Amino acid sequence: MSVPISYWSRQSPKFGLRDLLNDKVYIDPSSELTDPRWGTTLSLIREELRGDESKALDFYCGAGRFTQDLAQLVDGDVLGVDTSLPLIHEATPSSGVRFIHIPDGRVPTPPRSMDLVLANHALGGLRGRLLDRAVGEIVRVLKSDGLLVLIENTADLPDTRQHVYRDVETYREMFPQMQWKRDAVHLENKSEGVEDAHRMSVLMGRMMGDDAG
């Protein structure tokens, strides 16, 4: 059973721009808890870019915490989308960066329109029909040979109502269209009190052939 979108919309005013580690632990976006790991992730993404990327999608971007960083990686336009209207209202557009509310989970862009798609902790909170739609939209909008970056919590923990803890292979199997470029990179959380709550895994790969549409 999927968690209703309304649940996350209700959580947004409560936690604002803070980052969700699991269904219980939240941190401030300026905290050193995640900044080093996100910096490492940006370096990994930068290594995979070819230099001609002009359009990127931050899928389930929340309040746009990482969307602005994507704009520094691509020479063009970045779109952030989320099903939570309160979070989209908190996001700050800038030159080349815009945000759109997608209440039905459908991305308002043509097929094969994105050179890069970032799904940062987007799929762990989804099940069933909502998960299928999210995966389908990522596949639909990513260009042939476009780069997909998945970041998910793969900690070996029991599922909760709000979050499903899946392993790396399960996420890979959701995207048979992808040629994964490297082994997943696991960035452990060493901060006191949350060391068992968050094992961030970064998966990157490119869309194969004509399966992108």
What string gives the helices and strands in order?
HEEHEHEHEEHEHEEE
Number of strands: 10
Q: Class by helix and strand content?
A: alpha/beta
- Can you tell me the overall shape? globular
Poorly predicted residue ranges: 1-35
- The end-to-end span amounts to 28 Å
How many distinct domains?
1
What is the class in the CATH system?
Alpha Beta
Superfamily at the CATH H level?
A: Vaccinia Virus protein VP39
Provide the CATH topology: Rossmann fold
Rg (C-alpha, Å): 16 Å
CATH architecture: 3-Layer(aba) Sandwich
Alpha plus pi helix count:
6
Give the DSSP E fraction (strand runs of 2 or more residues): 25-35%
Mean pLDDT: 82
Give a quick account of the main beta sheet: strands, pairing sense, barrel closure. 8 strands, mixed
Keywords: Methyltransferase, Transferase
InterPro entries: Methyltransf_11, SAM-dependent_MTases_sf
Pfam families: Methyltransf_11
Protein name: SAM-dependent methyltransferase
Description:
- This protein is of the alpha/beta class and 213 residues long.
- The chain has one domain (5-207): Rossmann fold, CATH 3.40.50.
- It has helices at residues 5-15, 35-48, 67-73, 85-90, 128-141, 168-173; strands at 19-20, 26-27, 55-59, 77-82, 97-101, 114-120, 142-153, 178-180, 185-188, 199-207.
- Strands 3, 4, 5, 6, 7, 8, 9 and 10 form an 8-stranded mixed beta sheet that branches. Strands 1-2 form a two-stranded antiparallel ribbon.
- β1 (19-20) and β2 (26-27) form a beta hairpin.
- The longest helix has 14 residues, at 35-48.
- It starts with a helix and ends in a 6-residue tail after the last strand.
- 34% of the residues are buried.
- The model is unreliable at 1-35 (pLDDT under 50).
